[in-house]
Amino acid sequence: MLSIKNLQAKVEDKQILKGINLQVNAGEVHAIMGPNGSGKSSLASVLTGRENYEVTDGEVIFDGKNLLELSPEDRAREGVFLAFQYPIEIPGVSNINFLRTALNEIRAYHNEPPMEAKEFLRLTREKQKLVEFDAKLTNRSLNEGFSGGEKKRNEIFQLAMLNPKLSILDETDSGLDIDALRIVSNGVNKLRSDKNAFIVITHYQRLLEYIVPDFVHVLYDGRIVKSGTKELALELEEKGYDWIKEPATTASVG
Amino acid sequence: MINAIKMTTTTSLYDQFIALYREKEKVQDNRWLTSIRDTAFESFSEKGFPTTKMEEWRFTNVAPFLKEDFRLQPGGTSSLLRQNIIPSLDAYEIVLKNGMLNEDVSIPGVKVTPLRTALKNDDLKTYLGKHTPLKKNPFAALNTAFFENGIVIETEKNAIGDKPLHITHVYYAEEAVFIQPRILVIAHRGSKIEIVESVTVIGDKPLFVNSVTECYVAENAQVDQYNLQIAPANAHLVHFNQVVQQGNSLYNNYNYILPDAALVRNNLHLDLNGSNTESHLFGLYLAGNQQLTDIHTTVNHLFPNCFSNELYKGVLLDNSRSVFSGRIYVAQDAQKTNAFQQNNNILLSNKAIVDSKPQLEIFADDVKCSHGSTVGSINKEALFYLHTRGIGEIAARNLMVQAFAFDVTNKIQIPAVREYIEKRIIHKMAEAYD
Questions:
Q1: pLDDT tens digit sequence for B312-345
Q2: CB nearest B399 (choices: A77, A84, A98)
Q3: What is the pLDDT of residues B354-379, one digit of tens each?
Q4: Of the candidates B273, B296, B326, which is a domain's last residue?
Q5: Which of A203, B166, B168, B286 is an S-S bond match for B91, by CB 3.0 to 4.6 Å?
């Protein structure tokens, strides 16, 4: 589904990604861990086409298409979804109007007619229930006055509504209490299938107790320095990141 | 020689008005009205039409709009119009044709009288032209010297309106016309009235409307005025609205300007003539094409314990230009004043220009006042967020403009009016990026 080869990117003059290689297949969940400033969120930004990130080398192929050549909206329409670490508040745009616009823009891209109002309502109800999203938040302004947990739940609700092929969860666990974490994780687990894939970016192993990954990668200084299975996350929890940093530093010096 | 040419081109409309006033049949006016008109005329003849040398008109040059060969005092017309441009608005409907009311209107608790008839009543002299600063406002002075048509809206004491009063101004511009309607609103003690005004233009020749509204809000009364200025490109709307509030009164003004009137210039002046008054001023100008919109507001806090709040939002497209000039004046006696003012603008075109000039003049020492002004573009983070959900450039901008306007559209208390304005915004934005 997603094939990242030697991806390098910079912001202004600072090299942030220094050659990332990653293969994600349908049905898989990949966790990306690493210390602060290692490039985890930058990877999410580059994959979704955020401004200011300049790709200097490498390629990203998503379902046979060169992802890096597409506009952010076309990447989304092709099926890439980013759950934001800090979802934006947009007062005056109702959640529901926003979702309807998004859904219909994606449908138009695939030459499908706008969704019938009745069908949209049915889908909204169904997905709300699935991810335990409070119905009264649906009609409010997008994320306005939402608590941290409500915002994250809204991200997962949007994910459920838009049904992307590849979902990138950027530190979705940050700022969540244990109940919110459980609800968000349950939502994701219900949405997992053999047709979609998830990249879960997280700082802590805690989230991975709820969303169990098939692979764990450690990002450090713009590179994936270690890959393994879910046991790697436990090892990191126990030992911290320092033992990972050592060889990377040595390698770059050598 | 050169001077002579200049005189004939730039002062011709002025000259026409001067001549017209001298010829004018004045016998039909009461003595008090003649005296008001003479003073106003003197002031206009002295100043002439405003130029950009006047501080209040620095950013708005009206000269190019006054070059037409206007018919100056067109009468009403008998052709009927029964179309309501605001769908599903449940209101008492009044149609003014070129400012003229043809039929009597009966509304519970409210007397609506054609101006001509009402002027026979000497009581009007307490109100008409009493507070409007004519000396400083040549257009208002011109209207005062010449107005023929308009209406007087007078509520009964303690009458609470059950439905809004909707005034549709129909202007006939099958030839170039210069129309000067006058509206007087008297809300007596304890009464409440909502007035919605909208514009319909028939014909595509230059139309210049120089209107004056005077609104008196007595003690414990409430007046809500909605001014919806949506007109075609041949329309030029210059409007002066003088509001006088007595103690414990509430006044709300809602002003929405959308394309395409070539010129909209509004002066909204509030004199807070008693204690414990409350005033809200909300406005939106969404300017497109070559449009020039110009809002001048003044809130005069003259007594203690009054509250005023003003929020104007501007969205500028294409080659449009907007001016916002808001002044809050707090007199020495007006202690415990709470006065707030905010003007936010977004520019969606490199060619659009906005001039924003918030002003505070405070002479009391125990007050809470603030003002602020911003000019910017759409929040890029928010745009990116919308893009990551598959929403393209046009749809994302439209959503963001709706969101930006929301702070002033959500203040509209009449659902049908709110829906109408929101739809017009969406429609205009969709058109803008076609």
A1: 999 999 999 999 999 999 999 999 999 999 999 9
A2: A98
A3: 999 999 999 999 999 999 999 999 88
A4: B273
A5: B166
Domain that holds residue B251: 2-273
State whether ipTM is beyond 0.85.
yes
Residue B402 distance to chain A (closest CA, Å): 7
pLDDT category, B1, cuts 50, 70, 90?
very low
pLDDT at B3 over 50: no
Q: Name the residue in chain B with its Cα closest to that of A77.
A: B390
Q: Do A101 and B393 touch (CB under 8 A)?
A: no
Torsion of CA A223, A228, A229, A233, to 10 degrees: -60
The per-residue pLDDT of chain A, averaged, comes to: 90
Residue ranges per structural domain of chain A: 2-253
Cβ atoms of residues A1 and A63 within 8 Å: yes
Which residue, of B251, B273, B295, is where some domain finishes?
A: B273
Domain count, chain B: 2
Contact B406 A162 (CB under 8 A): no
H helix intervals, B24-121: 31-47, 115-118
Assess if residue B105 is contained within a domain: yes
pLDDT at B82 > cutoff 70: no
Q: Do A82 and B388 touch (CB under 8 A)?
A: yes
Q: How many A×B Cβ pairs under 8 Å?
A: 78
What's the full length of chain B, in residues?
Answer: 434
Residue B8: HSE in the Cβ half-sphere, 13 Å Cα cutoff? 4
* Alpha carbon distance B53, B219 (integer Å): 39
**Length, in residues, of chain A:** 254
CATH class of A2-253: alpha beta
